[in-house]
Amino acid sequence: MFGLTAGILSRQINKGTASYKLTEVLPRNARGYAVIPPPRSDEEKALLDAMLRVDHAGEYGANRIYAGQMAVLRRSQSAPLIQHMWDQEKIHLQKFNEILGENRVRPTALLPLWNIAGFMLGASTALLGKAGAMACTVAVEESISEHYNSQIRALMELDPDRYTELLQVISKFRDEEMDHHDIGLEQEAESLPGYQLLKAAIQIGCKAAIYASERI
To answer: What span, in angstroms and rounded, lies between the C-alpha atoms of 49 and 148?
Structure first.
């Protein structure tokens, strides 16, 4: 059984290596942009580039986590629920692919690492059963939601009228991440032995990934 699982994990990891290529850009509106107006200074561009880069990396990592969970639990009763959350993450990733392309922002150079690390995190926690997968979901989605909240505060301080479309995108995705977090709790994530320890460890990893993805 473990040999079969390893084979599935290997194929799934290899399948993910090409999925971080940028897609076609968004159609531009009469203002000349779809979501983000041109930055007014080098400082503002650096801020926005880091923000978009880390958001794209986070959604990419979340996709790989759900891919890992589905590789292990695809025949379980939890599979439809996990697939539902994964489908929403695919939409998030697609949107940030488009926004990066429109604004000529390079993705983080660490995507190959997040490809493997995300998948292995999802698969390894899923091997603990439904509670393990849901504990991972709670930890990751809470971290992503908190990060989105910090970005919303930063954009509100910068110029909320100028960044209305970006605020709408981030707010919508934040709400859906919180839905995933709440689903994880409803699905008895906290029943996993060592839940608090696992959650804390995963969130330390999330913070490190956010820090690195903004800069590399």
So the answer is: 15
Residue type, 79: A
- DSSP 3-state assignment of 110? coil
Which amino acid makes up residue 171? S
| Number of helices and strands in the chain (H, E) | 7, 0
pLDDT one-digit tens code per residue, 60-81? 999 999 999 999 999 999 999 9
Residue type for position 45: K
> Which pair of tokens denotes residue 25?
């850009």
Q: Are 178 and 152 in contact (CB under 8 A)?
A: no
* Contact indicator for 64, 16 with CB cutoff of 8 Å: yes
Q: What is the Cα–Cα distance from 206 to 124, expressed in whole angstroms?
A: 16
Nearest to 55 by CA among 216, 210, 215, 212: 210
Rounded CA-CA distance 100/86 in Å is 21
**Measured distance CA(27)–CA(24) in Å, rounded:** 9
- By C-alpha distance, which of 127, 123, 126, 125 is closest to 115? 123
Tokens 């993805």, residue located: 213
* pLDDT tens per residue, range 149-206: 999 999 999 999 999 999 999 999 999 999 999 999 999 999 999 999 999 999 999 9
Radius of gyration of the chain measured on its C-alpha atoms: 17
